[in-house]
Amino acid sequence: AVQTIQIQLTFDPLDTTCTICDNTGKLMNGTISYLSRDWLELFPNQTEEGFQCFKYNELLSSNYDVGSQECVAGRANFEEACCDDDDTFSTYDCEENIHDLIAEEINTITPPDP
Predict the structure, then answer these.
(1) Among 6, 61, 67, 101, which is disulfide-ready with 14 (CB 3.0 to 4.6 Å)?
(2) Region 6-16: what's the mean pLDDT?
């Protein structure tokens, strides 16, 4: 018997302009208080902390596409501080939902250590 497996992958077009928030939320004008080593390796002249999210978003959207390592680094470094993701689940909400589902399905009570 021959089994067929089909996998479908969907990617953003690589020529799409890079933005910090992409579709994860709305860009807010927060202040960046920390620059990671990855960011500083890509942008050695961008060492000033305290820049606003709008400035970093402008830097990325004016110069880089989604597929670039600069875009990936920008999103990884600034998404949490710059994007309002009220419309999406936070990590805590996701973990809480998973915990509740597991607790409903499995007996999670463990006896005390002897």
Answers:
(1) 67
(2) 66
What predicted TM-score, i.e. pTM, was given to this entire model?
0.59
Q: Is the dihedral of CA 69, 72, 77, 81 positive or negative?
A: positive
Sign of CA dihedral 56, 57, 60, 62: negative
Which structure tokens are listed for 31?
């202040």
């709305």: which residue's tokens? 26
Q: Which structure tokens are listed for 94? A: 């996701």
- Structure tokens, 66: 């989604």
Which residues on adjacent β-strands are paired with residue 31? 52
**φ/ψ of residue 76, rounded to 5:** -65, -35
